[in-house]
Amino acid sequence: MDLGLNGKSCIVTGASRGIGLASARMLCAEGARVLISARDEDALAAAVAAAPGEGTLEGVAGDVTDPDAGDRLVGECERRFGAVDALVNNAGTTRMRSLEQLEEADWQEQWELNVLAPLALMEAAAPRMAERGWGRIVNVCSSSGKRPSLRNPAYSVTKAAQLSLSRVFAERYASRGVLVNAIAPGPVESSLWVGEGGLADQIAAEQGGSREEAIAAAGAKVPLGRLGSEDEIAAAIVFLASTNAVTGPVPPGTGVTAPAIPSIESRSASPTIVPSVATLTPKSSTVAPGLIMFPVTRPGWPAAAASSSASVISPRLTAASTAPTCTARRPSAPCR
Ligand SMILES: NC(=O)c1ccc[n+]([C@@H]2O[C@H](COP(=O)([O-])OP(=O)(O)OC[C@H]3O[C@@H](n4cnc5c(N)ncnc54)[C@H](OP(=O)(O)O)[C@@H]3O)[C@@H](O)[C@H]2O)c1
Predict the structure, then answer these.
(1) CA of 34 to the centre of ligand 1 (A)
(2) 212 inside domain
(3) Average pLDDT, the chain
(4) Sign of the CA dihedral with 118 first, then 183, 86, and 176 last
(5) Domain that holds residue 83
(6) Would 240 disulfide with which of 100, 133, 181, 329, CB 3.0-4.6 Å?
(7) CATH number of the domain encompassing residue 39
């Protein structure tokens, strides 16, 4: 399937590892030019050095919750690639913290990470996409935003807010060619869950079992009997970032099945664009639900004319930021 991503310019936040990196690599393999971001400069450089495919992968180190992160990332993408065609708001993390343990700073951290940061990026990118009549935004939310987990209520509550935020932007921008989707995976075997000190280790420490038991218990709640893979989620994200028409619900990438689609809300924005929201309801309350929101795309939108191009090493950002940056198209280049 041609996803029409060749030459598209994309931003993926939180892409030094995990779901974000898998998504960036897939976009790159499709020929897209991808700007990735994360705080860890070395990890970012390693990701850039292993760039696959025909596209371009470049990195900008920084904290997505910095007040200027939205403008800075969008500006960098435009400066390097000429535009922002697709934005994937993926940066995020969580840790075991009960309601009683959560302090105001924890709530604030999750609010900034899951709501204010994607808001800033969408505010910076969506109007420019709308001016050009084409854009894709994918917000990586969580199943715990649909059904809160007591492992970290601040994470769950702000992921719920991120779903709502996604809907606001989806409705605001669909008629102008900018399709905004939210994907809500269940547990995924990224470092967030299975990495050293990740959720599996934290659960094991709290409950007294092994990390393997914690992973197995989480996987048992998913119909496939295992955690989702990074690539499974990335495939759904990349599809939603693509030019392909989306005319019906897409199953989430965790392997969660969707036996029924009980509600699809539709409202006509124009004869050719029908924003819709589909909620994939799990078979039982023990199943991690998946949610993807998507407006129906307008057929025949042109693919970007720009093609992939080799990049040069740019050791520093422009005056807009002092954050380190790394640039590579194969062969690899270090981040400086
Ligand atoms: N894994 C799951 O089970 C699961 C389930 C549902 C939803 N999700 C969501 O999926 C997204 C990706 O998670 P993942 O599982 O891939 O986690 P991961 O493997 O821990 O990767 C998280 C990425 O986000 C970056 N990041 C974290 N905080 C950041 C910040 N303040 N500024 C910039 N970058 C930041 C990390 O890099 P640095 O640390 O270097 O900044 C890393 O690249 C998150 O939004 C998460 O909530 C995950």
Answers:
(1) 17
(2) no
(3) 78
(4) negative
(5) 9-188+224-328
(6) 181
(7) 3.40.50.720
Q: Is the pLDDT of residue 44 over 70?
A: yes
Strands 33-38 and 56-61: parallel
pLDDT grade for 246, boundaries at 50, 70 and 90:
low
- Does the pLDDT at position 144 exceed 60? yes
Whole-number pLDDT of residue 55: 85
Q: Which of 29, 12, 177 is nearest to 89 (CA)?
A: 12
19: CA distance to ligand 1 center in Å? 7
Assign 243 a pLDDT band (cuts: 50, 70, 90): confident
Which pLDDT tens digit goes with each residue over 25-38?
999 999 999 999 99
In sequence order, what are the beta bridge partners of 125?
none
| Residue nearest (by alpha carbon) to ligand 1 atom 47 | 92
Q: Is 198 within a domain?
A: no
For residue 124, what are its two tokens? 């910076």
pLDDT digits (tens, 9 = 90+) for 108-134: 999 999 999 999 999 999 999 999 999
- pLDDT tens per residue, range 188-210: 999 999 999 999 999 999 999 99
Distance CA(76)–CA(294), nearest Å, equals: 27
Total number of domains in the chain: 1
| Mutation probe of ligand 1 site: the residue of 12, 13, 16, 19 with most atoms within 8 A of C-beta | 19
In a domain, 66, yes or no: yes
Annotated active-site positions, please?
Answer: 155
Ligand 1, atom 21, residue with closest C-alpha: 18
Nearest-CA residue for atom 8 of ligand 1: 142
* Ligand 1 interacting residues, C-beta cut-off 6 A: 13-20, 37-40, 43, 63-65, 90-93, 113, 140, 142, 185, 187-188, 190-193
Residue 203 lies in a domain: no
Looking only at the bridges linking them, the beta strands covering 135-140 and 86-89 are parallel
Who's near 273: CB < 8 A, 6+ residues apart?
174, 175, 295, 296, 297, 298
In the block, tokens 């590892």 appear at 17
Average pLDDT score over residue span 213-240: 96
Atom number of ligand 1 nearest to Cα 189:
1
Taking the CA of residue 65 as reference, the ligand 1 atom at the shortest distance is 31
> Measured from the CA of 114, which atom of ligand 1 is nearest?
45
